[in-house]
Specification:
By secondary structure, this protein is mainly alpha-helical. The protein has one domain (49-352). Helix content is 73%, strand content 0%. It is built from 15 helices and no strands. The longest helix has 30 residues, at 304-333. The chain is globular and about 65 Å long. The two termini are 29 Å apart. The relative contact order is 0.18.
Length: 364
């Protein structure tokens, strides 16, 4: 079994955060009233926005893959959906590796190189979400929201702005450095790091690293890097719009004096709840999303019961429909999730199984 320690760590973290979420933000006497007053019909149109976000992801990924495969043989949209489905039902984010193998079945690319392109996606997601934080603190007229949150942070507003903006600058800087450094230089750095290891392990690790770096090809051009970051904006703006629509059904906008403060709170919630995915958890980010998402909204001035019920509803809307669609797409494609998972369970070392010269076609 892959990553038993990681699985149990994620399970423990999810359980602890869900317990804290229930204790702090779920006053039972108010939940029934919130649900009775909520208009859950807003969830349906919000799903249109969510699947537009998934389409935007496939559009961005097509651009990232272009230097490696040219024009895709088949649509990338099902692959993205299956990857999200796998992440939602499998532990320790095995869905990223599942997506890499599934891509290699449909396109002439190695799983390792495909995994490298997924890493580019994730890095651009982080940069975009950190950019949202910076926008909330710097650009939007949200002094009341800023005061509420900074009051609970040691050091106040300067510390809060620094914590929000500096990671954005740091991650962006790393991506820019990668775009300016040659592949041979990166491999030389990796080789020096691996020097203390036995020669056989060194050779295997360098082989995997070379294919992973192949997936970072799009970062070799600052212009292409900028394009990827720009393409990330509609991805998260669509998802933030989805969360805003669901929030309207809970009258969360009434907790704020202006529409600008409501939109700022939604951007903040979108960024924090998704960045919380770095915290170990079981599948789908269950636990970190609920706890940190509700904590953000409550700090912004939303009532505990409203924040908690809304966060649960939003997370279900994010997880369930795309998971159902992913299962359906795999069935239609004639591909077995079990076989993809078995390969994913070999871990990072298994990424060199397929050669980049040509991957097998799908069974469909």
């Amino acid at each position: 079994m892959v990553g038993q320690k990681a699985f149990w760590l994620g399970l423990a973290a999810s359980a602890a955060l869900l317990a804290a979420f229930a204790y702090l933000f779920l006053p039972r006497q108010d939940i029934g009233d919130v649900l009775r007053d909520a208009d859950l019909r807003y969830v349906l149109p919000s799903l249109v926005l969510y699947f537009l976000a998934v389409w935007a992801r496939s559009w961005r990924w097509r651009y990232i893959l272009r230097p490696l495969i040219g024009k895709p043989r088949r649509s990338l949209y099902p692959v993205v959906v299956v990857g999200y489905m796998a992440n939602n039902i499998l532990p320790i984010r095995l869905g990223e590796i599942v997506r890499s193998y599934y891509t290699s079945l449909r396109e002439p690319i190695s799983p390792a190189a495909a995994f490298g392109t997924v890493a580019v996606e994730r890095a651009s997601d982080v940069v975009t979400l950190l950019f949202f934080l910076a926008v909330v603190w710097i650009a939007l007229p949200t002094s009341g929201l800023l005061d509420e949150l900074s009051a609970s942070v040691p050091g106040g507003t300067p510390v809060l702005i620094s914590v929000s903006v500096l990671p954005f600058i740091g991650v962006t800087g790393v991506m820019v450095v990668i775009s300016l450094v040659s592949e041979s230089t990166v491999l030389r750095w990796i080789g020096r790091f691996l020097t203390p290891m036995p020669p056989g392990i060194q050779a295997k690790a360098l082989s995997i690293s070379e294919r992973l770096i192949e997936g970072l090809t799009v970062l070799r051009s600052p212009k292409a890097l900028g394009a990827v970051l720009l393409m990330s904006l509609p991805v998260w703006l669509f998802e933030a719009a989805m969360l805003a629509v669901i929030a309207l059904g809970f009258d969360i906008a009434d907790s704020f004096d202006t529409n600008a403060e409501f939109l700022a709170a939604i951007l903040l919630f979108t960024a924090v709840a998704n960045l919380a995915g770095v915290v170990p958890s079981v599948s789908g980010g269950i636990g970190p999303f609920e706890f940190f998402g509700a904590a953000t909204l409550v700090a912004a001035g939303v009532a505990d019961a409203e924040a908690a019920t809304y966060v649960i509803t939003a997370h279900v809307a994010l997880l369930v429909p795309v998971s159902i669609l992913g299962v359906v797409m795999l069935l239609l494609d004639g591909t077995s999730l079990r076989s993809l998972v078995k390969k994913a369970e070999t871990g990072p070392a298994g990424l060199e199984i397929e050669s980049s010269s040509g991957a097998p076609e799908s069974a469909a």
